[in-house]
Specification:
Homeodomain-like_sf, 196 residues, Arc Repressor Mutant, subunit A, 10 helices, Tetracycline Repressor, domain 2
Length: 196
Amino acid sequence: MVASTRGRPRSFDRDFALDKAIRMFWRCGYEATSIRDLTDELGIGAPSLYTAFGDKQQLFAEALRVYDARYGGFIDAALTEEPTARKAAARILAEAPARYTRRGLPAGCLVVSGDAGATDEAVRQAARKLRRRNTAAFAAKIRADVDAGRLPADTDALALARYTMAMLSGIAQSASDGVPRSQLERASRIAVQAWP
């Protein structure tokens, strides 16, 4: 005998719906994306949205986490795979223009601009947390290079990490503004030259 399940089964693919939500937040940002926009984009009713993802704030937090792993993992990969902080920075800045202008995806970066204009402190904190984590990981790699003598002893690891991430954020914002990839690539090459 087959046991019956309670409730109605979901009639949509949650991962597919989450990816659509990620892209909507990526294009429009948290503040400009309404529940109505999300239900229209995902093709589900508000009750199904709340059941699957919780409220809009919870959906955005999950969207950020999944975006970071699915679309933004190039920063972690460079920090892990490159032998020095300088090589990691060069790789990240070289890859960023192509990453932020991929065909078929929104321009720019959800982590950089998804919380722009948001008044909800939890939403702003979720994005800040990812940005701070990336900066801290970069600073740790720079400190290791200073300790190993690969960078000058007086290198301010946190300031250099912040500089690099600020350049990366600027490239992402410029991509969102429609700056062509070739111009972003030139800017990234200049940013690398500022490294000690």
